[in-house]
Amino acid sequence: MGKPSTAAQNRYIAKAYDRVNLTLPKGRKEEVKAHAEQRGESLNGFIQRAIDETMQRDDTPASDTTERDGEYHA
Questions:
Q1: From the record, what ranges are coiled-coil (predicted)?
Q2: Phi and psi for 67 in degrees, rounded to 5?
């Protein structure tokens, strides 16, 4: 991809997406990336899915959860 294409792509990304800087302990990135790739996902896709699933689980009303082993589960 040439410079004009890269610049255009960067402008589109800046306009269409928000960026989040994630900091992990050394070595953790490769561990998470390998986990995602084992499931056919990109690192970014895995992180987005993890966020979506956690937010959905967190929005589940308390009455829909049961306590097992000292933790609540949906």
A1: none
A2: -95, 125
